[in-house]
Amino acid sequence: MLIETDAPYLLPRTLRKKPKSRRNEPKFLTEVLSITAACRNEDANWLGMVTAKNARTLFQLDARTTAKFDIPQ
At what angle do helices 44-59 and 29-40 cross, to 10 degrees? Predict the structure, then answer.
């Protein structure tokens, strides 16, 4: 599973403070993560670690650049 915010015209409805531009941006990924975790009845931190690992695998990203999101062994 991956999460993304690649729809600039679909701002998350749950944002408390809406940006003036009304544009969806990558900085709102945590909001998308929180909503996704709640819908799946899962912990947002755990889901964030899992989706970060999946993104590193899919896009062959260097784990050193995303180490803070590693799933504990």
Answer: 120
